[in-house]
Amino acid sequence: MRRRLLISSALTAAASVAVPALASPARTRLPRMTEGPFYPPRSWRADSTLWPDQDADLTTVRRKEGVLRAQGAWLGLEAQVLDSAGRAIDGAEVEIWQCDAQAAYRHPSVPATAGRFDPGFQGYGAAVSGTGGELRFRTIRPVAYPGRTPHIHLKISHASFGTLTTQLFVAGDPGNAEDFLWRQLDSATQQAAALRLTPAPAQTDLRWMARHALVVPS
Ligand SMILES: [Fe+2]
Fold it and tell me: Which of 31, 182, 186, 206 could link 200 by a cystine bridge, Cβ 3.0 to 4.6 Å?
């Protein structure tokens, strides 16, 4: 009996040593999705009259005629690129694109009809993550597009995993339940892809803030 107890406690001790605590819990990756029809082609973006500005601030378009500001509710998106083991990814290129407050995308297939799109919205932007995986965008709170719940498209690229094309949604948006892409995601993946918006501090020019981990493959 005594011997059995000793063996049992030895096994317990061994088990607690053999299974170290994880430095960081495993995280659910962003879902892989297609580009969809409105990823602005690189060749088209190379036209500096169409695209004078492709930085990480989509709320402002700087043209030589002047500076235009986006319609809609401005959103500060603070993101961190992490892999599914919790490691920060330094130097990831993150591209985002979304429709403007009038639900018009910047794309060669979408006519830029005066009054039916917002010339103050940049439509596309890009940033590179810093040493802690961090990056930030200024954009607008995404709006519904016909047949789709509000969403932001992303393309994340880094040598460690290649390219991940995905979308971010707005947590709690009533349109999500009807969205054909959102409905395909399991609940953990929905969480990974859902921005939790909070009102921005009054001293900023933003209306909403979100902090979000962009979890990519290990
Ligand atoms: Fe879209």
Answer: 206
